[in-house]
Amino acid sequence: MSYDEPLRLPAAAIPDGCRDWTAGPAADWSAALAPRWTLPAVRRSVAAAATTFALCAGAWAVMLGGLWPLVAAGFAVYTLWVLARPELVWVGAPALLVGLAVEAPSLPWAVTLAGALVVLVSWTAVAVRLRARSTQLERALGAAADGTARVPDADAPVRRGRFLRPLGLVVLGLAVVTGATADMWGTAEDRGGSRIVAFYLAGLAATALASAWLGRHRAVALRRDPAPVLRVLVRDDAQGTTEVYAADDLAAARPLFTVELTSYDGDTEAADDEPDEPDEELERLFDALDDDTPGPVREAVLYGAPFDGAEVVVVSADEDPAQPPLTEWSAGPVRPLTPDAGLRRITRQKAREARGRHLEQQVRERDAGRPAVPVRRWQAGWLDWLAAALLVQWGGWLCGAWFTDWGPSPWELALAAAIGLYGAVRVPQKLAWRITADSTGLWITGLRGPRHIPWDDFRSVRRQSFELKLRWRDDDWSVRAPKWTWLERRRGLTHPYDTLAAELTVMRDDPGLRPTGESSGAERGRPLWPAALALAVLWVAALALLA
């Protein structure tokens, strides 16, 4: 569906005194963003990778250099705080400096100096980032002027943090158990490794609990008093994240910030009295994501002054004119985008949309002139084999890093067994996945056997980064393989996952291009569990011989 202008928000949903957040004030707000070197917008995957690397480096330092496990685990958690939860750095940085000072006599001076330098530089970057928040808040309040209003459903129960709080308590329990059993290990290295894991889990638990408290505290503060209001434009990207634009940016050329929104904070008690029915709203949301393109631009009212990490409420026009306006609460913090980052984001979106449309058109033109086939099949190729080889290599390297000599300890054997069993399940799926299309729908191989997805239940297929993901009613399936965007662009190559996604999308949209026959059992593929079981048995046998 195409839209020539933003979807209008009913006048009754716009509070009195609500001003437009136009391009001029919005540009002033963007100018107050923290510099790029402060790392204000790091992806979650990058933050997780950096934290894992810091944990591994700390473990090596404990094993080889005698570093205290608390300091090693503290550096890993501190890395996560710097990238994803800067508010906690004010506690973490002094604590790490104290730990380094205590450990200084037993460490080389170069290690102590390097650690202290890292802490001080990152502390400075966080201070600059948090200072920029204050300026963003001031400029957002200036743009709103005297326009304030009570947020919708202000008296409804606050559910922000209800997931992170129990998660933090569970992880904290695991940390206590791990720490309490550390002395049961046979060697000093095993006891040190157990303590690192215990301290690291405790840090993750503290992160989850602090994030739950901060989110809830800010959500409650937003409800307590009339909040600043601004008229803006919003749009959901292909992944469901909401992009916020200036009120006069009708072409949606430059997003100001992104935020994860949810409607769960609304009053749900009345819904509990209704008979159980299919969740039509959730299905409508998933259907909006099927074509892997952003949603339409919609008028909206933003409750709460936005800044890096803020909580907001958005009341926006629904895509269906017959529906009332949507009221959504932030399920995550506001993430500002610099002008350059916003433009790059839109450019990538448009390029992805154009590439997808071009591939689908090519498939339609190719298949329109061909006779119908009874069955179509796609299966793992050389990129999937490469992904499996990399997975095996990673597992082998990790196990080799822990096995410093023959006769590994029980702790090392347990770790190696867990890694091997994970690989035994994943490797067959990477090497032997198969998708079969026939007149009844799709068949996808799995551990227990092929799964059948009728055409009417098939929702979407898309390639995002390394992942090919299929979604159907109530479930999904995915597989991952390497990609080299720069090489594809330079050589004019098409990733196999992109071609597969385009072909399945065309079949979903045009029944006339679907296969006409019914596939046999052999064509649908065999269960993968025998291969997984064989690999698991071989791995356990190898560990038994090593022990």
Written overview of the protein:
The protein is α+β, with helices and mostly antiparallel strands and 547 residues long. It is built from 16 helices and 17 strands. The radius of gyration is 27 Å and the shape is flat.
Which features does this protein show?
547 residues, 16 helices, alpha+beta, 4-stranded antiparallel beta sheet, 52% helix, 10-stranded mixed beta sheet
Q: Give the overall pLDDT as a whole number.
A: 84
Number of strands: 17
Instruction: Note poorly predicted spans.
Output: 265-282
Outline the biggest β-sheet.
Answer: 10 strands, mixed
Shape: flat
Distance between the termini: 62 Å
* Overall SS class: alpha+beta
Sheet-strand content, in percent, reads 5-15%
Radius of gyration: 27 Å
At a glance:
This protein has 547 residues and is of the alpha+beta class.
Element layout with pairings:
Layout: E1 19-20, H1 23-31, H2 44-65, H3 69-84, H4 89-103, H5 109-144, E2 148-149, H6 164-180, H7 188-224, E3 227-236, E4 242-245, E5 257-259, E6 261-262, H8 269-272, H9 280-288, E7 298-303, E8 313-316, E9 326-330, E10 335-336, H10 339-368, E11 376-379, H11 382-402, H12 410-432, E12 434-438, E13 441-444, E14 451-454, E15 458-464, E16 467-472, E17 475-480, H13 485-491, H14 496-509, H15 521-524, H16 529-546
Parallel strand pairs: 1-3
Antiparallel strand pairs: 2-3, 3-4, 3-7, 4-5, 5-10, 6-9, 7-8, 8-9, 11-12, 12-13, 13-14, 15-16, 16-17
Helix pairs in contact: 1-5, 2-3, 2-7, 3-4, 3-7, 4-5, 6-7, 10-14, 11-12, 12-16
